[in-house]
Amino acid sequence: MSTQTIAKPQAQQPGKGKRRISLPVLLLIIAGVLVLTSVVRLITGADGITSTGQMSTALRLAVPIGLAGLGGLWSERAGVVNIGLEGMMILGTWFGAWAGYQWGPWTGIVFGIIGGALGAVLHAIATVTFNVNHIVSGVAINILALGTARYLSKFTFENAEGGSSKQSPPIDSLGTFDIPGLSSWLDTLNQKHWFLISDIGGLLGGLVTDLSPLTVIAVALVPGSWWILWRTAFGLRLRSCGENPVAAESLGVNVYKYKYLAVIISGGFAGLGGAFLSIVASNVYLDGQTAGRGYIGLAAMIFGNWMPGGLALGAGLFGYTDSLNLRGGTTNVHALILLLAILLVFGAAYLVWKKRYVPAVITAVISALMFFWYADTNEVPRQLVTAAPYIVTLLVLSFSAQRLRMPKADGMPYRRGQGK
Amino acid sequence: MKKFDKERLLLALAGPVIALVAAIALTSVVLLASGRNPFEPYALMLEQASFSDVQVLIVNQASMYYIAALAVALGFRMNLFNIGVDGQYRLGAMMAAAVGANVSLPSFLQIPLLLLVAMLTGAFWAGIAGVLKVTRGVSEVVATIMLNAIATSLIGWLMLSDNLGVQVGNNNTTGVIKESGWFPGIDLGADVGEIYGLVFLAVLLGILYWAVLNRTRFGFDLRATGESESAAAASGVDAKRMVLISMLISGGVAGMSGLPLLLGEVHTYSLSFPAGLGFTAIGIALLGRNNPGGIAFAALLWAFLDKASPALDYATPVAYEKEIATIMQGLIVFAVVISYEAVRQWGLRRQQRQVGAELAAAAADNNTTQKEVAAR
CB within 8 A of A128, min separation 6: which ones? Predict the structure, then answer.
C-alpha cells in the first residue's frame, strides 16, 4: 500500500511531461510530413495524392465521421460511453431523408438532429436514470434504431414516388459553393505540380472548393465544441461530471441534468452526421447507409484523446485514406507505401537516438520490406485500398495510444448522493 | 430462512418476466401506432414455430448464435469488449473452407483439422487486438472494430482467383469442401430438414464454458480480473497475460461459430455467407447475462424471432412488416437490462431494509438489558 502511494506520482510525472506536444513542435511535424509527401509525389508522379479533388472528397468523407466523433466527445466528457452513436446516426439518416424529401433539405437536417436526439434520450434514460451498463444500452440502441428505420421505411418510402422499402425518394440538394477567385487560383496552383507549393495549394483548395453549407457548419462545430466545453462555466460543469461526479455534486452541480444534456447533444451530433449522409453525401436514404461510421467516429474520438482538435485530425486522416478508395486508389496507395517507408526510416533513426536498439532494428526491417514492396510492384491490390483507413487508424493508434487519457469517470455508474 | 429464499427466487424470476412483458407491450404500442393489429403478429409467429421445418431452422440458427455469443460473453466476463467476433467468425469460416477445399484427409482427421483451422484463425485475428492492447495499450474496442473492416478486405483479397478463390458464376467462393469434411446432420425427413451435427459442438462449448469459468483456477482468475483488475493483480494474477489469453480463447471460439453452417449445409464460403452474426451475438450475450444457460435461451429466442418473422410478410389476409421482429429484439435487450438493474437495486434496498430492521431489533433488545447503551 505504502509503495503504491509513493510510486504513483513518480509514475505519472514522465507521462505528463510527454503528453503535451507543444504547438511549434506539432507545426514542425505537420510541415515535415507535407514536405515528405511532396517529395514522394515528385518521385512517384502520383499527383493525385495531394490534388484539390482528392482533398475535397476527403473533407466530404470526414464530415460524418467527425460529427459522430463530436457526439462521442460530448457524451464521454460527461462520463457516458456512447456506443449507440451508430444507431443514432441511422435515425438521423432516416429522419433527415423523411423530412427532407417532403419539406426541403434544411427541415431534413433539423429532423435528422431530432431523430438522433430521440435515440439519445433513450440512452440517457437507461444509463443515467437506471444506471444500466453504457455499452449494453448502446448496443440495444443500435439494434433498435436499425429495426425502426427499416420498419418506418416500409410505411413511408415504399408508398412514396421514387422510393422503395430500402430507399427514400430523392431529396433536393443544399447546393455547393466555391470561394470566388480563391478556389480557382488554388486549383491552378495545384495543377502546376510544383514542389510543396502545389501540395499546399491542393490541401487548401480542397478546403474551399465544392463546399456544402452543412460542411461549413460541421467544421465550425469543432472549435465551437471546444469553446463551449473548455471556455464556459457550462462546459466546465459538464466535464466535471465526467471526471468526478461526486465532487461535482458536492459543488452543487446537478449531475443528472448535465449528463442528460450531454447525451442528448451527443445524439444530436450523431443525427446531424446521419442527415449529412442522406442529404449531402448522397441525396437519398439507403438501408445500411451509415456502414459503421458511428463506430469509426468513436475510434476517431479515442484517437484524438477525447479532444475536439484531435478527433478532427483523426476524422481527417480517415476521410483522406477513405477518399483514396474513390479516386485512383491503387496507384496512390502505392505511392503512400513509399511515404510510409520513409517515415519508418525516420522512426528508426529516432529510436537509435533514444538508444532503443531492438525496436529500431525491427522498424528498419519493416521499412526495408516496404521499400522492397514499393520497388517490386506497380500497384497495390484494390482490397488494400479499401482497408487502408482502418489499417492506418490501427497503426497510428498503436504508436500513440499510451499518451491517451480518457475522462476519469467515463462509463462509471453514478447515483445521486453516492458520495455521502 | 426458507421464506427468504422463496422471495429471492421470485426476484430472480421477476427480471426476465417483467422484461418480456414490457417488450411485448411496447412492441404492441408500436404496432398500434402504425395502425396495425397489436396482437396478431405474435399469433402468426407462434404458429410458425409449431412447424417442424421452422423448428429445425431455429435450432440450426441458434447453434451459431450460441457459439458466437459464448465468445462475446467470455470477453465480457473479463471486462473485455470483443466487437470483433464478426470478423473472427468470417475469417475463421473462410480459412476453414479454403483448407477443406484443398486438403483431402479421411473424415476423422479432416473434420478436426477444419475445426482447428477455424479456431486458430479466429484466435490469431483476435490475438492482434490482444497484443496491441497489452503491448501498446490500444483499446480493444477500437482495435476489433478496425480488424472487422480489415477482415472484410482481407477476405475479398484471399478469395480472388489468383489467391485461394474459385470463381463460380458471378460469385467468388473458396471452392467446395471435400466430402470427408462434411459433418453429418440429423436427418428428419425431406420436408422437415436436417439438424446440423455441429449443434452438439455448441452444447459442448457451453458446458466447457461453464466448467472452465466456474471450476478452474483460470476461470476464477478471469472472473476476478473482470471484477477488479487491481484486486486480481494484488492476489498475483498477471492481468496482461489474462487479457491476451482470454482474447485468444474468445477469438478461437468466435472462429468456430460459422462451422455448423459451413460443414453442415453450404460446404463452401462465398460472398453470400451471412455477415453480422458477431453483432447479433453481442445482444444475445447481454440478454443471456453471460451465463451459458441464459445465452442458450437468448439464442433460441433470437433465432425464433429471426426465423418466424419472414412469414409475416406473406401472411393472409393482412401482411405485417417482418422488421417488427428486429424492433422487438432491440426492445427486449433494452427491457431486460433495465428490468434486471431495477430488480437488482430493489433487491439491494430490500436487503438493506431487512438488515436494518434486524439491527434495530437487536438494538431494541440491547436497550432493555443495557440502559447505558441507550443513553449514549
Answer: A80, A256, A259, A260, A263, A414
Interchain contact B327–A (C-beta under 8 A): yes
Please report, for residues A154, A156, B46, B303, B316, the alpha-carbon distance to residue B320 in angstroms, rounded to integers and kept in the order given: 10, 14, 14, 19, 9
ipTM of the prediction greater than 0.90, yes or no: no
User: What's the pLDDT at A8?
Assistant: 36
| Range A364-393 burial, b when 16+ CB lie within 10 A, else e | beebeebbeebeeeeebbbbbbbbbbbbbb
Q: What are phi and psi of A315, to 5 degrees?
A: -65, -40
Q: Structural domain tally of chain B? A: 2
CB pairs under 8 A between A and B: 135
Residues of A within 8 A of B152 (CB-CB) are: 386-387
Give the pLDDT confidence score for residue A2 in this predicted structure: 36
Give the Cβ contact number of residue B251 at 10 Å: 34
CB contact under 8 A, A139 and B154: no
Per the structure, the complete domain to which residue B86 belongs is given by 55-319
* In contact, A87 and A119? CB cutoff 8 Å: yes
Shared-domain flag, residues B208 and B229: yes
Closest-CA distance, A140 to chain B, in angstroms, reads 5
Average pLDDT per 10 consecutive residues for chain B, totaling 376 residues: 62 78 88 82 85 89 94 90 91 92 88 94 95 88 87 89 76 83 82 86 93 91 86 86 92 94 88 84 86 91 89 79 84 83 83 88 76 48
Residues B137, B267, single domain; the answer is yes
**Would the CB atoms of B153 and A155 count as touching at under 8 Å?**
no
Considering the four listed CATH numbers 1.10.8, 1.10.3470, 1.20.120, 3.90.1010, the one that applies to the domain covering A54-322 is 1.10.3470
Out of A141, A142, A394, closest to residue B143 by CB: A394
